[in-house]
Amino acid sequence: MLAGLPLGAAAAPKAAPKAAPKTVCTITVNSPDEKESFRRHLGEKDYRFVELVERGRPDWLDSSCRAKVACDILVISAHYDGGNEFFPDSLDAREFLPVSELERVSCSGSCPTLFSRLKEVYLFGCNTLNPEPHSGATAELMRSLVREGYTKEKAERELQSLAAAHGESSRDRMRQIFTGVPVIYGFSSSAPLGPIAGGVLDRYFRQSGDREIARGRPGSRLLAAFGPMSMTSVPGLTPADPYWQSRLDMCQFADERRPIGAKLAFVYGLLQRHIGEARLNLDRIRRLRESLDASVRDDPLAAQVLEVIARDEDARDRVLDYARQTDRPDTRVAMLDLARDVGWLTREAHRDELATMLRELQAKRDAGVAEVNLACRLNADRSLDGRLAESKDAGGTAQAAMRACLGSRDAREKTLQALLGPSETDVQLAQAYLRHRPVSDPAELRDLTQGISAMPAGPAQVRALEALGRHYVSDGDVLRRLVALYGQTSSAAVQSAVAGILLRADRRALSADKLRETLISLRRDASSAGGGGTIDALIGLLGAR
Fold first, then answer.
1. Residue 269: which residues within 8 A CB-CB, separation 6 or more?
2. How does strand 85-87 pair with strand 97-98?
3. In what order do the strands lie in the sheet with 79-80?
4. Do 71 and 24 form a contact (C-beta atoms < 8 A)?
């Protein structure tokens, strides 16, 4: 039957099946410039583009998991805080990407496909592959090791091993998350803004096409294109890596399939090791603690582990000793919170420890905004009121603001007076205090406004007005005093600051027509009229009634 067929027809091989398009997943939290450059130059023929972020939907990453998206390439465009979160630069944007979410997806069986076949990851954000430890724990641990009797050289070796083994740098953490990925691109320091990065990518693609894309090895041309901008590349961890255990430890916390009792048992194991192990996992332990609720006691294993931890006096002593000796208040608070939550400190003992720390901070000559913020934050529930008595050497505005955070009326009055002074540092301290303890009493707000109005025109008065502007103003006397200040001042900057307050205020106590006329007729910098500034915005709003 085949004899009559042409030889070529009988021997023609089957055409090779066309390769499926590669999937380029994009997580665009900030600028779309990088994503659009990839899309323009790679095209839709050989690449399929999937944007994982769904605007207005907080569970967008879970949605991608349920849809069984499998990425060959991942492009993340966002600002990066150097440790915990990818975030946008727009205050209106609601899409964020916690690094802990990437850890969960990487470790959990509930999302087995999303990262399973990744060949390349592109992290367009500052410090995404920074090799330096980011938590500040290393300096703490160095001092702790020296106190324990280690020589400086031995302490440095021990510290390097601990830090690398626990993902203390952004680079280490990304290697833990994107395990097995041949190439992870990112930036060791500052990254270019989106439009600049997009332009570099455009030039790169025009010269090189996609010859280096999804090949599973670093692209020398791409690294050269971004070379002056600190781009670098690393591979993800593999089981052969000496620090593979760090990946396993991360997943002990992040894998949502593991029962809470098993996670608590792992924490107990950490507490039996060198205190540095618990310190380097402090953020993960905190997130685990915050996820617990009353029902955890109904889990027999969880209840048993919590009971064992509560009875462990050696671990208690190690944690409290470290907390009391660290010079980082945020670490001290986290350690004390851990001690309270596992039953090593009663609530009253916990408050005593916090009060002791605040007294030590108040005694510092260089106390500043950070200490004021901490004092107000720790006393948000007013449980520490009265714990900071005024010493013989009462100190300056920082010390007064800290005492005000802990309920002192005299210190509050002194702090508000600092807002009216010429010192920019004192104004910043008062502003920090007012962010936590705003003025709510109308009489106090009137007195403050009168004091600001009596200040000489200049930068100090503008700073004081900016602090006042963080309040929602509706009192008629305050509003009229501000309008009078607008008309009397010789400073265009002061007028702009007043307009900013009035723009956000409840202006029902004022005549809109008269206010608009005042804004226009008494404006000091008439040359900027119509330029789109704060005064123009208020005039436009009043005219649109």
1. none
2. antiparallel
3. 79-80, 85-87, 97-98
4. yes
CA dist list (Å): 290 to 59, 113, 223, 263, 382: 20, 29, 41, 13, 21
Q: How many CB atoms lie within 10 A of CB 448?
A: 22
Spatial neighbors of 432 by CB under 8 A, at least 6 apart, are: 369, 372, 373, 376, 401
HSE of 131 in the Cβ direction (CA atoms, 13 Å)? 6
How much is the pTM?
0.76
Q: What share of the chain is helix, strand, coil (3-state, %, to 5)?
A: 55, 5, 40
Q: How many Cα atoms within 13 Å fall on the side-chain side of residue 126?
A: 12
22-47 pLDDT tens trace: 999 999 998 899 999 999 999 888 99
Residues in the chain, total: 545
Pairing state between β 97-98 and 22-28: unpaired
Adjacency order of strands within the sheet including 22-28: 47-51, 22-28, 73-77, 120-124, 183-187, 231-234
Integer Cα distance of 269 and 248 in angstroms: 14
Task: Return d(Cα 535, Cα 504) in angstroms, integer.
Answer: 12
pLDDT 10s digits, 420-478: 988 889 999 999 999 999 998 999 999 999 999 999 998 999 999 998 988 889 999 99
Q: Write the DSSP assignment of 40-90 as a string of letters.
A: HHHTTTSEEEEE---TT-TTHHHHHHHTT---SEEEEESEE-SSSEEE-S-
Lookup: tokens for 442:
């109308």
Query: 61 and 101 in contact (C-beta within 8 Å)?
Result: yes
Please give the structure tokens belonging to residue 83. 């440790």
- According to DSSP, the β-strands at 120-124 and 183-187 are parallel
Round to whole Å and give the CA distance between 85 and 79: 8
Token digits of residue 405: 């955070």
Query: Residue 268's closest CA among 243, 302, 234?
Result: 302
Question: pLDDT confidence of 8, banded at 50, 70, 90?
Answer: very low
Q: Looking at the DSSP assignment, which residues form a beta bridge with residue 186?
A: 232
Strand 73-77 and strand 22-28: the pairing is: parallel
| CB-CB contact of 296 with 303 (8 Å) | yes
φ, ψ for residue 213, nearest 5 deg: -85, 135
CATH code given to domain 22-132+169-234: 3.40.50.720
Residue 232 has φ and ψ, to the nearest 5°, of -145, 175
Tens-digit pLDDT profile for residues 124-181? 999 999 988 765 665 666 666 666 666 767 766 666 666 656 667 899 999 999 999 9
Measure the CA angle with vertex 24, ends 23 and 28; round to 5°.
145
Angstrom distance (rounded) from CA 522 to CA 517 = 8
* CB atoms near residue 409 (< 10 Å): 9
pLDDT in tens, 361-404: 999 889 999 999 999 999 999 999 998 876 655 689 999 999 99
Torsion, CA 159, CA 164, CA 169, CA 173, rounded to 10: -150
The whole-angstrom separation of Cα 349 and Cα 326 is 19
